[in-house]
Structures
1.
Amino acid sequence: MFLTRFQINPARRGARRLLSSPQVLHAAVRAGFAAPEDHERDGARTLWRLDSPTPTTVHLYIVSPGRPDLTHLVEQAGWPTTETWVTRDYGPLLDGLRPGQEWAFRLTANPSHSGRKTADAKETQRFGYLREEEQVGWLTGRATRLGFTVATQQDGRPNVRLHRRQTYSFKRGLGTVTLTTATYDGVLRVGDADAFRRSLTGGIGHAKAYGCGLLTLAPAG
């Protein structure tokens, strides 16, 4: 597995097009892998996420089974004369995970549930959780089977902060996709290391093709 960071130049026309649609950006990420097995394998898939550490900086993070070639993104939406992309081997971090370790984490996810729109509706559909307490509960409620627990603060509440909470729509073919997303920053404790590795390499929740599900780690404290 590999972890890649690519800096987008938001002033470029190509960048604005990519940033306007997760469908378009997903296709651009997919185009970075010549071999299908480098994009998706059993138990591992390509995940991506946009982060904006400052109002004028946009980073594209990618975790993938194979090493990507993002030359096309540099040409369309990057900094061709100063920046390309940085790819690191993700294996040492995955191999070093142990129960009891604490990590700071970031996750952009699609907190949602399935249900029927009306009592007599035949088909179920997916609804996004909109309230902050629901979105926190969505993560903490499934954390154990994902291989971790969210650490608690001194007041007993989960050590997690939500931002970039939004519901937005974009075109996919002739239809429209509507997504509710939230970005979680917090501290977690590893429980089941194997299950946690699967969460890091396979993603968390739905809408993984559209920039959701990638959980990244940093040293806690």
Note: The chain has a mean pLDDT of 94.
2.
Amino acid sequence: MIEFLSSHMLWWHWLILGSILVVAEIFIPSFITVWLGLSALIVGFMDLALGTSFTVELAVWIVLSVLFIYLWFKVFKPKTPSRAGQSDNSFDVYGTVVETIRKGEKGKVKFDAPVLGDTQWFAIADEDLDEETRVEIIEIRGQLMYVKRLV
């Protein structure tokens, strides 16, 4: 196979392969094929300019592909913050008391948006809160929300 490719692979084969891989990125959005394709295009132009052997072209293509993929993942890829755990969870969600909360006793609140995966939570407050009172989260301790009246 290597002998066949070595004797038949021309510079324009690299350009076609690179073009196909770059276009394939449209259908396979992985940001991998685009780097393989870009490497193939560079190797094609390198072969056109320098007339290198197939083994050199293959080695350059592998090195460039690995380098581009590494740079993509380590340098250029935008960092997305992790949503795992509770530490980065936003507490700016408001809710309505659906079971009366007496000072120091549990009641139930339905939040306008899911909080930690659910819209209804048991809650406790430092004051009495009747049903239909709008509240906001002060703190989350385990499975219990600490809320206060929305001012």
Note: The mean pLDDT is 86.
